């Protein structure tokens, strides 16, 4: 009897495996080059190739990537407590309304760059914004391969104002906004701010456009989590704007919100935990970004087309180091539970960070 039960169980398991294999059988795409697990994903290959060549300068981790990735956040987080808005492309469809919101200052430039791509491909604005962001990040060494889901309908109304957090908002306000938008935990908020490792500011201080948030804006690494915890310096002839705290590195900008989150007891230990922990950054950022990218949608109604997103460059990312002339004594330690990691210091004179050049 036991043997018959075991044989039956094995037969059921084998049948299930065969059925699953049949379900996930790949289909040939009409382009004759690619295959996909779902035929609906086939159209994305041509869109991917188009934006890589004509939006991202042949696959560079440059300004258009930074701005496209910023747009994914500004579109998605614009969601009201009644479920309106979210990652639906409303920021592009209702551009005249949403780009007038103070928090969306400057996003009109990348929206206008993306509009011709949306016009020539059969894709909704919500899908395109999230797809372009995920493809763009894949050009950055050290980045995780992000998920992408297809099937967002066209937006029907603009997102509400005051739904995008700003650099001068308090930690309490920022955490509350993320919780209201999608029940994000403080840990998920910190993980999402890993995006600042490949970010630059044009409008926080318009006198210094293209100013990066860390010394390695072309690499998706943990350097931003280290440098935000260093004591700031006000350089001669400079003055901080609202939402800005001076960095110890000339040519680098620090957001007030990042500075505060790195020092607030609700988030300080999580912030510090990313310092020199590339694997955790990749893992946690990928999970938090997936949640952000489908805000306002039911994942079960979307199609997983993550396979179309390119694999990021297979390179070993340099471990976090203190910029030249700085060390552990320059850290403003905020986490009470764990000592700050001991890291080497780069050789040479004091570090000066170059602006991200416009494309």
Characterise this structure.
With 359 residues, the chain is mostly helical. The chain has a single domain, classed as Orthogonal Bundle (Peroxidase, domain 1), CATH 1.10.520.10. It is 37% helix and 5% strand. It has a two-stranded antiparallel sheet with strand order 1-2.
Task: State the gist of this model.
Residues 69-339 form the Plant heme peroxidase family profile domain. With 359 residues, this protein is mainly alpha-helical.
Feature tags:
mainly alpha; single chain; 5% strand; Peroxidase, domain 1; 359 residues; two-stranded antiparallel sheet; 37% helix
Spell out the blueprint of helices and strands:
Elements: H1 2-23, E1 27-28, E2 35-36, H2 43-54, H3 63-76, H4 90-93, H5 95-98, H6 108-120, H7 125-137, E3 149-150, H8 171-182, H9 186-192, E4 200-201, E5 211-212, H10 223-227, E6 244-246, E7 253-255, H11 256-261, H12 268-273, H13 278-293, E8 303-304
Antiparallel strand pairs: 1-2, 3-8, 4-5, 6-7
Helix pairs in contact: 3-7, 9-13
